[in-house]
Specification:
Length: 239
């Protein structure tokens, strides 16, 4: 255990490792920040300290015990892409899971955790899902509206995962693995401003209906704060 991690634990502060699997488009970083910064802002809490490991660039932690909890970000990559860091990340995921350390996966993170633990990931037959999406949470008995931007999704959930959230187009949208792992297809960290700017940059391939749904994000009643609270509680050991 590192000296810094020992001090954090003595102060009852949780050290969270962000496993960054992509970078935001360069044209948007100056205005919105990089993907790790999205989470640092949205999860800001005096009880949480964040360290970023840009696994997409080959930067990995020395040990799963370098953090009290782990978060895997979204990415434009597919989990099927042949990059060395993807296979290495899958092995790290299995180590984190076996060590029973809290782990959160978002979009690509949701998909690669499922693949690493025995599930399957493929492209949705309905094409791209973008903008605000309603997810029915069976565990919470409520509907949550979260911004999404994906084409791949978990087509077969791992046997050890419990499906706790679905949308009209994505059956395995929120998966829970025991008490330590929770993953989401949607993006609670993404803001309407960011997705609007992303639409201008990367929305040429989207249908007109999909483009209109992205623009709805500014007026949608989003549940991002509820999901952020759920993630914090997972990291702080309150679930």
């Amino acid at each position: 255990m590192s000296y810094a991690l020992k001090i954090d634990r003595e102060r009852n502060t949780k050290r969270i490792g962000i496993l960054q699997t992509d970078h935001a488009p360069g044209e948007l970083i100056a205005k919105h920040g990089d993907y790790n910064e999205f989470f640092i802002r949205s999860l800001a809490d005096e009880r949480l300290h964040f360290d970023t490991y840009a696994v997409v660039d080959g930067v990995f932690p020395g040990s799963v015990t370098d953090a009290d909890g782990w978060l895997i970000t979204g990415a434009e990559y597919s989990v099927h892409d042949r990059h060395d860091w993807i296979g290495k990340l899958e092995r790290l995921i299995r180590e984190i899971f076996d060590a029973r350390i809290p782990m959160i996966g978002i979009c690509f993170g949701h998909e690669i955790i499922a693949q690493a633990l025995g599930g399957r990931v493929g492209k949705s037959g309905r094409g791209w899902t973008v903008g605000p999406v309603q997810y029915e949470r069976s565990d919470l008995k409520q509907i949550q509206t979260i911004i999404a931007w994906h084409q791949d999704q978990v087509t077969v959930k791992p046997a050890l995962a419990e499906r706790v959230g679905s949308s009209a187009d994505c059956e395995n949208a929120v998966l829970r693995y025991g008490s330590n792992v929770l993953t989401y297809q949607g993006h609670p960290e993404i803001t309407p401003d960011y997705i609007r700017d992303l639409l201008q940059l990367q929305g040429q391939h989207l249908s007109e209906a999909a483009r209109r749904n992205v623009l709805r994000a500014a007026d949608a009643c989003l549940s991002a704060s509820d999901v952020v609270l759920e993630i914090k509680e997972m990291f702080l050991g309150k679930r």
